[in-house]
Amino acid sequence: MKILSNLYLWVNDKFTAEPQSLLVEKGIIIEHLPYPVPEQYKHIYQQDFNRAYAYPGFIDTHTHSFEGGLYSSGADLSKAQNIDEVLQLLSAENAKKSKNEIIFAWQLDETLLQEKRFPAVQELDSAVPDKPLLLRRIDGHSCILNSFARKQIKDLDTSREILRGAENDYAVHYFHNCLADDIILEAYQVSAKLGLQAGFSCLHTMIGDAHNSITHYELIRDNLDKFPLRFILYPQSYNIKAVLNAGAKRIGGCILADGSIGSETAAISEPYLNSTSHGILYQSNEFWQKFISEASKHNLQVAVHCIGDRAIRQINNVYKIISATEELRHELIHCELTDDELIQEIAISKAAPVMQPNFDLLWGGENGFYAKKLGIKRSSIMNRFASLLKAGITVTGGSDWYVTPLNAAQSINAAVHHHNLQERLTLAQAIDIYTKNAAWLNFEEDTWGQIKNGFQADLSIYSFPLGTETSQLLYIIREGEIKYATK
To answer: What is the mean pLDDT of residues 77-101?
Structure first.
């Protein structure tokens, strides 16, 4: 038993007027106490937090934590301004690696390079001639390999340099599957540390090849107690039998109904600007009907990646006819392009959009990436947080890390300062999608996501309230114990 004392607590959508204390036993909040604590409690060990500000532990409901941890030790191309700088970064990474060690490069946005293109395979070979190189676009839906890597995948179609769709997925998972268990576990340890530093006590993470393998799901499941941060695991596969055998309660994550805006593979009703392409529906209506129905019969919560309005509607149309959708809290991952009619259809299905405020922060606005790909009119109906909530739909917040930064304060701020004034959330609403609503998504609304008696003592503690310019993360408390401290 211990007391976490001298904290302003986020309760009922605001901070307490005076500092408070929490009596915690076995990781559970037993009682709210004043500060200083009454005399009868002074024999109990106290941790004094010096009038800091405590939120319920923030939960990110959509990450690719394995890739985030793995790629964090690779080549980050986000600051490269041209092809030469990309090649310099790759060459420097090559010099650090041992023979045949795989080089992972990430965060490439070719639209921000002076040349407005991917580097060519021949250019990659000049920087990394003797080791396998996997270079991923920022959205994860396109990649390119050097010749050394391409030769290792014998049945890969080498007629196209830039790999998209199924070829992208196949190449990526080929090299992920080459890694030993100790490297995989270390990637998750890195992710856990980065998650804590980003203000989170819990991350939902996708595991699997998005086809028929759950890859290292069981390895992580059996080692969950070794990580300082809590992981909620998604077996990202169509293999219902394997998922059930692994004891999972959900299936999916980024199993793909479509691709991405950046790769022009997100399935949209009207074509992309300056193009005849409407993107790609990766599976038929019949496929999704059969898969989601079968998963629901086994009481599995289903999560499907759907970005464009055609893909969202395709998945939501199935959810609408599955009577268990509300009970199982089936998910629409990303759910980016939604007109008013589609929002009403989602309200009917009772599905849960799992969304990323950073998408608008990075790509929204009249001069932003969405507008350049879709036009201003359609860019205004991207990432409609406020409209979805007003329709009575439960929205949760994620980052899609490694795609966008893992940072709780940044994500909440992005939701509050959406480019579209009509889609901005209040601070309380933005906090809810990373706390109460996130706990609800995992069927834990009665035990997580609030600072309340009987709830888990998970806290994200800051020096000042979020939105204050000088606010800084100080501590992450998980089950009453300090798991991260800035000092």
So the answer is: 96
Q: Is the pTM of this model over 0.90?
A: yes
pLDDT cut 90: percent of the chain above it = 97
Phi, psi dihedral angles at 10 (to 5 degrees): -80, 100
Where do the DSSP E strands lie in 152-229? Answer: 162-164, 200-207
Strand partners for 32: 22
From the options 3.10.310.70, 3.10.290.10, 3.20.20.140, 3.40.50.10490, give the CATH code of 71-176.
3.10.310.70
CATH 3.10.310.70 domain extents, the chain? 71-176
Give the CATH superfamily of 2-56+452-485: Urease, subunit C, domain 1 (2.30.40.10)
pLDDT of residue 158: 67
- Give Cβ neighbours of residue 414 (< 8 Å, ≥ 6 apart): 357, 358, 360, 361
Q: Which long-range contacts (CB under 8 A, 24 or more apart) does 32-40 make?
A: 32/453, 33/3, 33/5, 35/5, 35/6, 35/7, 36/5, 37/3, 37/5
Q: For residue range 249-275, what is the model confidence (pLDDT) as tens digits?
A: 999 999 999 999 998 999 999 999 999
Task: For 264-334, list the strands marked E by DSSP.
Answer: 301-306, 331-334
pLDDT digits (tens, 9 = 90+) for 417-436: 999 999 999 999 999 999 99
What count of other Cβ atoms lies within 10 Å of the Cβ of residue 226? 11
Contacts of 392 (CB under 8 A, 6+ apart): 347
Q: What share of the chain is helix, strand, coil (3-state, %, to 5)?
A: 35, 25, 40
Q: Which two tokens stand for residue 84?
A: 């030469």
Could you name the CATH architecture of 181-441?
A: Alpha-Beta Barrel (3.20)
pLDDT at 156: 80
